[in-house]
Amino acid sequence: MRRGAPRARYGHDEILAILDAGMIAHVGVTTPDGPLVLPMAYGHDGDRLYLHGAAANHLLGTGEGHEVCVTVTHLDGLVMARTPFHNSMNYRSVVVRGRATRIDDEPGKRRALKLVTDHVVANWDSVRPPSQSDLRKTLVLEMLLEEASAKVRAGDPVDEPDDIAGPWWAGVVPITTRFETPIASADLAGDSQPPVPIAAVAGQTPDERARPHRG
After folding, report:
1. Cβ(76)–Cβ(90) under 8 Å?
2. pTM above 0.70, yes or no
3. Closest CA to 25 of 63, 58, 59, 70
4. What's the rounded Cα separation, in Å, for the pair 16 and 185?
5. Where do the domains of the chain lie?
């Protein structure tokens, strides 16, 4: 990393921590029609990154067997400086580059899809498993986590020494993501109480699960 090199992180554990905290990756490929970037869910096992989509997904289909770029970014705060020239953002980001390989064998495909699902909410084992038809309709790609780097900014604005004594406000506006109480589907036939893994996303313990109303 050349630009902002002091903010670079190359430690494998640091990279995995940022991936673990994220839910959406932006995946970029070069297609015959030009570059294309789409957001999608992802998963990983520490060594490989997994992506999935419809079997007819243009981006993933084009990326198969080619170099793909995947980015995951967390925005932690708006950094407001004494001059807009020094305004910035606090963030954690990861960039992964590598050749995307298609997974065709059923056990490998199911394992990758479970990793993607459980990365967002660990409910793979508490719902109907994917059918053979579901698997046929799904394309799964994997990438080695070999060419990966992170970049992190934290802290206050960096202003000019002459500006620090001035009257202008400077500081950070923190940004957080919050999960609300799960709401049962209006056509739910069973118990409206969410399963433990889903309730846990909102920070509820098994004893604290409230009965969500039907929307």
Report:
1. yes
2. yes
3. 70
4. 33
5. 5-176, 178-215
